[in-house]
Fold:
Amino acid sequence: MSAVGQVESERSLADHDVILLEDSSDNSEGFDDYDGHFDNPTEPTTKQSSVAPVSEYPQIEKGVVINQLSNNDDFISLSDSEESDGEKEKEEKDGTNVEAAALSGDNATKKQAAVTPAAGDYPWITNHDHSKQKEIADWLTLEVKDFISYISPNRVEIKQRNTTIGKIRAAVSELWPDADLHVFGSYATDLYLPGSDIDCVVNSKGGDKENQSSLYKLATHLKKNGLATEIEIIAKARVPIIKFVEPESRIHIDVSFERINGLEAAKLIREWLESTPGLRELVLIIKQFLHSRRLNNVHTGGLGGFSIICLVYSFLSMHPRVITNEIDPIDNLGVLLIDFFELYGKNFGYDDVAISLSNGVPSYLPKREWRELHPIRNSFALAIQDPGDRANNISRGTFNIRDIKKAFAGAFDLLTIRCYELDQALFSERVGKSILGNVIKYKGKQRDFKDERNLVLNKAIIENEDFHKKRSRTDDDDELDKHNDGKPEKKRSKTKKPKKTSKRRSQASQVEAYQEDNDDYNPQEY
Ligand SMILES: Nc1ncnc2c1ncn2[C@@H]1O[C@H](COP(=O)(O)OP(=O)(O)OP(=O)(O)O)[C@@H](O)[C@H]1O
Ligand SMILES: [Mg+2]
Structure:
C-alpha cells in the first residue's frame, strides 16, 4: 500500500470505536506486562480518559507510532472477566466478600464468615446436594466437580467461539492471502472461563506482518467488515497486538503477529492436561478464585492464566501423595485444592525458590541458580521459568504476590474451617450447604450444568494439532533434505509416517451430528 493509502486506512479507523493506549503501564519495578483486557466485556471502557480517538493524534497521520510502550519488554498477557466492578462493589458493600473478613482477623470472624453462605451465590450447588457424604473431603471433591461442570462450556458457547474465530480467520485470509490466523491461549487448551478472551496470532509466509502499518490495515479491515468494535492498537510493545471485541458474540479477541511460541505452549499444555488428571479442574478453580478477587490481571500485578497453569501443573507433578500413587487426583480434588492453598498461601518460600519447568519436568530451583533472574530487585516474588524459554520468568509481572498469597492463605482457612464445621454438623443441618461457597464466587450469568465439550469440537484445538502436525512433517522433510541434498522427491514421500487419526479426530465422528461445519474455519497449509 502506498503511504497515502496507509494514511487513508489509518484515518478510516478514526472514530470513537478505536483507542490507542498511551500508557505504558510501566511501574517502578519494571513490571510492564500489559493485560489490557477490560474487566467487564459488556461495559464501555473506562480508559477513555487516557486514550483518544485516532483523529486526535496528528502524529498518526504522519505514520508515527504514538504508543508509549516502547520500553515494554514483557509479554503482553491476557485475562478474562465476566464480573463487573459494580458487582464487585456491591459484593463488598453487602459484606459477602467473606474472605476479606476472614483475612481481617480473629477466628470468630472467620467462623462467622464461613457459616453464612447465601445459597443463591453458589449456583453450582442447586440440585446437587452432597450433604449425605460420610467423608467431608469427598463432599468437597464432588462440589469441585459440580463447579467445573457448571463453568464448562456448553454446545452453544463452543460453536459461538468456533464461528467467531472462523469469521476473523476468513477476514485475515481475505486481506492477506499468504497469512493465516491461529488460536492459542485458553481457548486452544480448553481452559477458558465463560468470559475469557481468545488469543490469536497471524502468521504469514513472508513473516512481515508485525509492523504498525499491518496492525492498522487489519484493524481497518476487521472494522469495515463489522467484525471488530472497541478496537485498541498497541503497536509499539515487545509483542504488538490488536485488541477488539467481536460485536456479535461480544468475545474479546487479541491478535498478535508472526510468532509461534503461544502455539507451542498450547500444544505443551494440552499434553500436560492429558497426562495430569485433575489439572484442568484445579486450574479452572484457581482461575475463578483469582478472577473473582481481581487478582488474575497481570496488568495490575495479578497472576495470569499461563502462570496459574504452570503453578498447578508443578504442584500436581510434585505432590508426594500423587507421585507415589497414594491418591487418585480425580477422587481427591478437594484435598488437593486445600493443599494447593496451603502451599502457596502459607508455606512456599517465595524469597528463595523458583519453579522450573525445563524440559517439561517441574522442579524447584533455587533463585540464586537462575542466572537470568538476576539482579533480583524484590526477592519476595513468584518466579516461574517459561517452559519454552528458560530465560523468561513468566510471572515477573505478578508484583502483587502479597495479596495473592494472602488470598490463598485465607482460602485455606475458610475451607478447613468449613470442612470442620460441616463434619461436626448433623446430616439434617448440612442439607443445601456449600463448602466451596465462600471461596469460589460466580457472579456471571446463570448457567446450566452442561459440559458439552464432547458434543462439539473445539476447532481451535483441532487446528492447533494440525498446525503442529504440518510443522513436524516439514521438519521431517527438512531433515531428509539435509541427508539427500534436497533429493529425491520419491524417497521423501516413502518415509512419511502413515496418517494417524488423532483422538480428537476420532471423537469427531461421534459428534458429527452436532457440528456446525460451515463456519469457514479451515486453516491454510503452509
Ligand atoms: N509472561 C509470558 N511469557 C511468555 N508467554 C506468555 C506469557 N503470558 C502469556 N503467554 C502466552 O500467552 C498464552 C496465553 O496466556 P494467558 O495468560 O492469557 O493464559 P490463558 O490460558 O489464555 O488464560 P486466560 O483464559 O486467563 O486468558 C500462554 O499460553 C502463553 O503461550
Ligand atoms: Mg488468554
Summary: Residues 3-82+156-259 form a domain with the Beta Polymerase; domain 2 fold (CATH 3.30.460.10). The beta strands are 18-20, 179-184, 198-204, 229-234, 241-246, 251-257, 353-356, 363-366, 385-386, 389-393. The longest strand covers residues 198-204. Confidence is low (pLDDT under 50) at residues 1-12, 22-117, 486-526.
